[in-house]
Write a structure and sequence with these properties.
- This protein has about 230 residues and is mainly α.
- It contains five helices and five strands, in the order E-E-E-E-E-H-H-H-H-H.
């Protein structure tokens, strides 16, 4: 059964035959000389010298001459890379807990502002419908330019409510990505939207939590932990 392991220097996933356990060979990607795991090294199979290695290193689909410019050494049963496989960065201890609070706050204010925007939109839709149907409304005359102006103002408020609902969804998604340490740019955009006055829905509610999220996102250790 083939032995699979990673190069200690470049992290490339490598494969070699099970009969090479304990031997030394050269990584075809970075040229580092290492010992094949899975066996007990012996003086006959391991030496610090590359020239004494029992295995040549040949990249998949190539020869040993393609690996770091080294000539073939011995037989051709050597490491075969399995393709690039970069492991995601591991967050430092405590990073997930550091972003959990502001991320959950972003999720909460995202839902709250979305519901408020939706309710306001429904209200103004009813008002515009009543104005267009000549239904009497308090403070609005049945006829005259005031009624037309009130209808235009109601339509404008509907548009504003739609924008607020969209921004609420952005804040909601940004909080979710922040909690999962994904999409740093999206999380940062959502936090900035939350702190902009008169842009974010109910900015008095979103402002403190947006600032909290920005402080957490600007921490270098938090930023490094994100999977972009």
């Amino acid at each position: 059964m083939p032995i699979e392991f990673r190069c200690t220097r470049c992290g490339k996933l490598l494969r070699t035959g099970d009969g090479t356990a304990g031997r030394q060979a050269q990584c075809p990607v970075c040229g580092t000389i290492g010992t094949v795991p899975g066996g007990t090294p012996t003086p006959e199979t391991t030496t610090p010298s590359l020239a004494a290695s029992q295995d040549a290193v040949a990249p998949m689909g190539g020869s040993a001459d393609d690996a770091a410019g080294q000539p073939p050494l011995g037989n051709q049963s050597a490491f075969q890379p399995l393709g690039y496989e970069v492991a995601p960065p591991q967050p430092q201890p405590g990073v997930a807990e550091r972003v959990l609070g502001p991320a959950m706050a972003m999720l909460v204010i995202g839902w709250v502002t979305f519901v408020l925007s939706l309710l306001a939109m429904i209200y103004w839709i009813v008002v515009v419908a009543a104005l267009s149907s000549n239904i009497p409304l308090e403070g609005v005359p049945a006829n005259g330019p005031e009624r037309g102006q009130a209808m235009m103002a109601g339509v404008a408020m509907i548009v504003v409510c739609v924008i607020w609902a969209a921004l609420s969804i952005l804040i909601l998604i940004g909080g979710q990505r922040m909690r999962r340490l994904q999409s740093y740019g999206l999380a940062m955009t959502a936090a900035i939207v939350a702190v902009i006055p008169c842009i974010a829905p109910c900015c008095l509610l979103t402002l403190p939590f947006g600032i909290w999220a920005l402080i957490a996102l600007n921490d270098p250790s938090v930023k490094a932990a994100f999977r972009h």
